[in-house]
Amino acid sequence: MTTPTGMTVTQKLSAPDEAPTGNVPGAPAVGGALELPPPRREVSGALMRGARCLCPACGSGSMFSSYLKVTPFCATCGEELYHHRADDAPPYAVIFVVGHIVVPLMVLVEELYRPEVWVHLSLWLPLTLVLCLALLPPLKGMLVNLQWALRMHGFDSGSDEREAPPEGAVRPVIRAVRPTL
User: Fold this and answer.
1) 1 to 8, 11, 50: CA distances (angstroms)
2) What region, left, alpha or beta, does residue 143 occupy, with left being phi > 0 and alpha being psi -120 to 50 degrees?
3) pTM given for the model
4) What is the pLDDT of residue 34?
5) Is residue 7 part of a domain?
6) Which segment of 7-16, 43-52, 53-62, 100-109 scores lowest on mean pLDDT?
7) Quick check: 2 pLDDT over 90?
8) What is the tens place of the pLDDT at every residue in 72-91?
9) Neighbours of 93 (CB within 10 A)
10) Within a domain: residue 73?
11) Does 173 reside within a domain?
């Protein structure tokens, strides 16, 4: 009996093993080592740091340079943060959360006390505004840190989506602090 290569089964069994071609999934490339996936990033820790508006990598640098402007690089560890694509998701999340807080309270007050419309307006409009403004930075921080933890939108060093830093962004110089003896 012959194999598709024209060898008999006994010749095939006694033939030396062929070098891997690199086309087999999981096999090392010819002359190279098996490439390991990058280490896993902890999602829950990144979300907690995001809720405190801190850098996803080090947890000590501030993520925002102003109210909602994400700084291009962490001033503490130098992590690139300009890859984020938060866009319109944080406001939608804020609307969802604030709506689930304010609307049940509004219905409860209406059913228990039946106040005038002006009372509702003077109560719920300021509360809604304060809650929205207070929750927007933490929710945006959580979304950016989630993207970092899942290596989305260029946060993966081997990604094709990586882009150049924004114009005028300067990477901070991180210096090691030597302990004094």
Assistant:
1) 6, 10, 66
2) alpha
3) 0.74
4) 73
5) no
6) 7-16
7) no
8) 999 999 999 999 999 999 99
9) 16
10) yes
11) no
Distance CA 53, CA 47 (A): 10
| pLDDT band of 167, cuts 50, 70, 90 | confident
When divided into structural domains, the chain yields a total of 1
Measured between alpha carbons, how far is 168 from 68 in angstroms, rounded to an integer? 18
**Angle, in degrees to the nearest 10, between helices 89-113 and 117-149:** 150
* DSSP code per residue over 59-123: SSSBSBSSSS-B-SB-TTT--B-TT---TTHHHHHHHHHHHHHHHHHHHHHHHHH---HHHHHHH
- Mapping DSSP onto H, E and C, the string for 106-136 reads HHHHHHHHCCCHHHHHHHHHHHHHHHHHHHH
Token match 């509360």: residue? Answer: 127
Q: Which domain holds residue 78?
A: 43-149
